[in-house]
């Protein structure tokens, strides 16, 4: 299983929450760890932090394109580059991959048990799409193929994606989940007026009810 860590580090390396999380995963899965950072100084912090887990580290990408930090496409570029690198350097395109923001465990220590359960549960099935923990794109799981398709979609089609939604009501997190469903399960209802709300729940093909309740805000096509 591939574990991709990315995003803001905040105070991640000031405690052992992430270390213990990775350690627990390593007891169940044969891990390959990839890490994306935007500051070269962070690399030595990470290498010292993961200690004996360094043997699982495959690659640390230092993204120094700082001039793009404020660009809307920057997060998509980071995501795309890392997923593409993993795809190009992995033999099996069906290998499971977990994408996780490094600082998520700092927000609530109980997240660790929940995320471990989520990963173990989802890994029992084959991946026809990507799945998201707790209705949030901060932790997602799929395989290399499904993640690459989604990352490419946001990198190449981001302007078209923004055109579909009322972005004053829908954040990036929701866009990722909605577009994942749009790509892999296009039968889900997607066309709603900008003022309407709907409950977004579904049971996947393996019979697992995700229990997601999401408000959808999609631009009315007639308004274009």
How do you describe this structure in short?
This protein is an alpha/beta fold and 224 residues long.
Return the CATH topology.
Answer: Spore Coat Polysaccharide Biosynthesis Protein SpsA, Chain A
Order of helices and strands: EHEHEHEHHEEHHH
Biggest sheet features: 6 strands, mixed
Structural class: alpha/beta
Key terms for this structure?
Spore Coat Polysaccharide Biosynthesis Protein SpsA, Chain A, globular, 224 residues, alpha/beta, 8 helices, six-stranded mixed β-sheet, disordered C terminus
Structure overview:
With 224 residues, the chain is an alpha/beta fold. The chain has one domain: Spore Coat Polysaccharide Biosynthesis Protein SpsA, Chain A (Alpha-Beta Complex), CATH 3.90.550.10. It has 8 helices and 6 strands, in the order βαβαβαβααββααα. The protein has a 6-stranded mixed beta sheet with strand order 3-2-1-4-6-5, sandwiched between helices. Strand 1, helix 1 and strand 2 form a beta-alpha-beta unit. Helix 3 runs antiparallel to helix 6. The N and C termini lie far apart (44 Å).
Write the layout of secondary structure elements.
Layout (H helix, E strand, L loop, with lengths): L1 E5 L10 H12 L3 E6 L2 H11 L6 E6 L11 H15 L7 E6 L2 H4 L3 H12 L8 E2 L6 E5 H13 L1 H7 L7 H13 L40
Parallel strand pairs: 1-2, 1-4, 2-3
Antiparallel strand pairs: 4-6, 5-6
């Amino acid at each position: 299983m591939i574990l991709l860590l990315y995003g803001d580090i905040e105070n991640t390396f000031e405690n052992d929450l992430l270390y213990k999380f990775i350690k627990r995963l390593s007891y169940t899965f044969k891990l390959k760890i990839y890490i994306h950072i935007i500051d070269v100084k962070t690399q030595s912090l990470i290498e010292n932090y993961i200690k004996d887990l360094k043997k699982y580290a495959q690659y640390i990408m230092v993204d120094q394109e700082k001039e793009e930090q404020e660009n809307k496409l920057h997060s998509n570029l980071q995501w795309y580059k890392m997923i593409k690198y993993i795809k190009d350097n992995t033999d099996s395109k069906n290998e499971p991959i977990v994408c996780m923001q490094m600082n998520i465990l700092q927000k609530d220590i109980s997240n660790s048990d929940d995320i471990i359960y989520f990963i173990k549960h989802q890994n029992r099935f084959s991946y026809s799409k990507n799945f998201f923990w707790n209705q949030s794109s901060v932790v997602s799981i799929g395989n290399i193929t499904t993640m690459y398709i989604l990352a490419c979609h946001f990198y190449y089609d981001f302007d078209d994606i923004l055109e579909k939604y009322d972005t004053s009501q829908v954040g990036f997190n929701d866009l990722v989940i909605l577009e994942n469903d749009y790509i892999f399960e296009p039968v889900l209802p997607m066309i709603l007026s900008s003022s309407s709300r709907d409950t977004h729940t579904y049971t996947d093909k393996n019979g697992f009810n995700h229990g997601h309740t999401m408000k959808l805000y999609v631009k009315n096509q007639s308004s274009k």
